[in-house]
Design a protein that fits this description.
By secondary structure, the protein is of the alpha/beta class. The chain has two domains: about 170 residues, 3-Layer(aba) Sandwich (Rossmann fold), CATH 3.40.50.1970; about 180 residues, Dehydroquinate synthase-like, alpha domain. It contains 17 helices and eight strands. The longest helix has 24 residues.
Amino acid sequence: MSFNLEKPVRMISGENTVKNNAHELKKLGGRCLIVTSSSSAKKSGALSDVTEVFNENGIEFSVYDGITENPLTSSCFEAGKAARDFDADFVLGIGGGSALDAAKAVAVFASNPQISSPDLIYAEPVVNKPLPVALIGTTSGTGSEVTGVSVLTNTKGKKKSVKGENYYASIVLADYKYTCSMPYSVTVSTALDALCHAVESLLSQKADESSVSFSKKAITLVWGELVKMKNSYALPSEQVRDRLFDASIYAGLAIEKTGCCFPHTVGYFLTEKHSVPHGKACAVFLPEFVKRGLEYENERASSFLELIGASYEEFEKTVLSLADVNITLDENELESYLPNWEKAANFDKSPGGFNKYDAQKLITDLFKTKNG
């Protein structure tokens, strides 16, 4: 064996985890700020389950529902102040990766008022221990439940992560039923995100036995379901929802060890500049990533194709069809973005290495440019 493993998150999974574990939430305190978006927590039924449990157990709560997709540092900063004003004992995040990542940042802002403006979360030390965080996921893609990472969009519109011991949840209540309200497009995009996490981790230069095991488990669960969704355009059954949720957690455990590689970093460009959903934005670049894997990490990349039972060409066709990104880029826009990739750590972990000019060429090859 050749790996180190430390998982400070306590996760409880299964049906009715919220109602069956009210005592676990009560241990975190008597006052809670619930952090979520404007709709997903309500549509999934998770918010009503939580508020019912809180009311039954005497936990006072306030709801901050201003979290958007690609959560803003400014919103997290505002919610942190709301948590202080409410005198919250803990923070509960409900939603997809955006709400869960935001909840982690809110907990830091809440207990560290010396971080006096939103973007200082990237620079200022966390002096005071963050408020405890509980998380309830309503999508099956990010794996944010089990990672010590929060990906935020700064006041200049750039996605950037904060990570470390201050960004882990205290407890996760995982119940796949909350993912059943996702529409087809979101289901596909989040499943693609989980696939990207798993494949990027599998071929990462930081991969070890534990991460490879988690990656392969996630790939086994998610790939066949993606193929079925591509062919049928139908929403998955509840049983499949359960599999996809499990896949996202396994993939999260994989990237917790290795981090992501260039598909995620380059994908931010499509999200920031063209509002492409995160999972699809990353997946567009996954075939090229696997191609480089076949060149530089052939054994692992070949084992991946064997695992999914597909040729490279079949894999590429399926992923690009599901991602379905059709945009026209301006070459000047792309040129101006290059400094963002100057020292991208995720590039170095990619098979054979990667740099900003590789990223520029990849995007140019995939998408026509207005001036090209």
